[in-house]
Write a structure and sequence with these properties.
The protein has 274 residues and is an alpha/beta fold. The chain folds into two domains: 231 residues, Phosphoenolpyruvate-binding domains (TIM Barrel), CATH 3.20.20.60; 36 residues, no CATH class. 41% of the residues lie in helices and 13% in strands. The chain has eleven helices and eight strands. An eight-stranded parallel β-barrel has the order 1-2-3-4-5-6-7-8, surrounded by five helices. Strand 4, helix 6 and strand 5 form a beta-alpha-beta unit. The longest helix has 17 residues. The structure holds 3-methyl-2-oxobutanoic acid and sodium ion (NA). 3-methyl-2-oxobutanoic acid binds next to strand 6. It comes from Microbacterium suwonense. Its cofactor is Mg(2+). Its EC number is 2.1.2.11. This is 3-methyl-2-oxobutanoate hydroxymethyltransferase. It catalyses: (6R)-5,10-methylene-5,6,7,8-tetrahydrofolate + 3-methyl-2-oxobutanoate + H2O = 2-dehydropantoate + (6S)-5,6,7,8-tetrahydrofolate.
Length: 274
């Protein structure tokens, strides 16, 4: 996949498929499944690191996870997610962080959240030669300021603010836009106004592509998920079942069986007994 391929898919009306991944086996299954793009989201904070929200994850943690994904990926484009506090303060800080994601983790693009000052940061990163993905609508890094994890743009004024942010990010040179948790009507109004592809998550069927969190779509954790999540597998149940069976077989001495056991070289066992 190249950036040109993404634009071509949008022009041809072919949906772009993106999924998150956070480690080497996750990258490999995404690759074999044939996705177009992989995002190492700062959702890693919750999905793999056990934090309460995305704000806690550090650049070093994200780089470690992203580099592992890079080693498992060849065809799909790799997007790194700039974590909270790693790009907002100045253009220089934003460029330095984005460069780490390229140099140390091999990202093809980096993603940042919000409009406002993030538009300037996006412009600076693009000027430094690194393709940028914008992220508007529900922006989890600043969810507290948005009134929590809830759909954005349900009122027309709020929807226009989301659309303004999206237009400003395109103007700043973003290659792609993620729009999260907005009514389908907002996405339908936005997409014709933009030249760049729009990847939706909880943003209806009118986006140019979709992204979901690996752990959400594969059912890797228990508990409730957001309204927009569809579970395509129940890996948590499968994993618990597998480990329970293993535990039972160890306790019953059914595992290991002969086929899991090494034998000594011929004749050596008899000598050992002597
Ligand atoms: O961190 C993440 O997983 C994301 C996607 C949900 C777009 O930003
Ligand atoms: Na994110």
């Amino acid at each position: 996949m190249t950036l040109g391929d993404l634009a071509a898919k949008k022009d041809a009306g072919e949906p772009i498929v993106m999924v998150t991944a956070y480690d080497h086996p996750g990258a490999q299954v995404a690759e074999v499944a044939g996705v177009d793009m992989v995002l190492v989201g700062d959702s890693a904070a919750m999905t793999v690191l056990g934090y309460d929200s995305t704000v806690s994850v550090t650049v070093d943690e994200m780089i470690m996870l992203t580099a592992a994904v890079r080693r498992g990926l060849s065809a799909p484009l790799l997007v790194g997610d700039l974590p909270f506090g790693s790009y907002e303060a100045s253009d220089a800080v934003a460029v330095a962080t984005a460069q780490r994601f390229v140099k140390e983790a091999g990202c093809d693009l980096v993603k940042l959240e919000r409009g406002g000052t993030s538009v300037d940061r996006a412009r600076a990163i693009v000027a430094a030669g690194i393709p940028v993905v914008g992220h508007v609508g529900l922006t989890p890094q600043t969810a507290t300021a948005l009134g929590g994890y809830r759909a954005q743009g349900r009122a027309a004024d709020d929807a226009l603010a989301v659309i303004d942010d999206a237009l400003a990010l395109q103007q700043a040179g973003c290659t792609l836009l993620v729009i999260e948790a907005v009514p389908a009507e907002v996405t339908a109004a936005l997409v014709p106004l933009l030249d760049i592809p729009v990847i939706g998550i909880g943003a209806g069927a009118d986006a140019d592509g979709q992204v979901l969190v690996f752990h959400d779509l594969l059912g890797i954790y228990g508990g409730p998920a957001a309204k927009f999540v569809k579970r395509y597998a129940d890996l948590r149940t499968a994993a618990i079942d597998g480990i329970r069976q293993y535990a039972d077989e160890v306790r019953d001495r059914a595992y290991p069986a002969a086929e899991h056991t090494y034998a000594m070289a011929p004749g050596e066992s008899a000598r050992l007994q002597e």
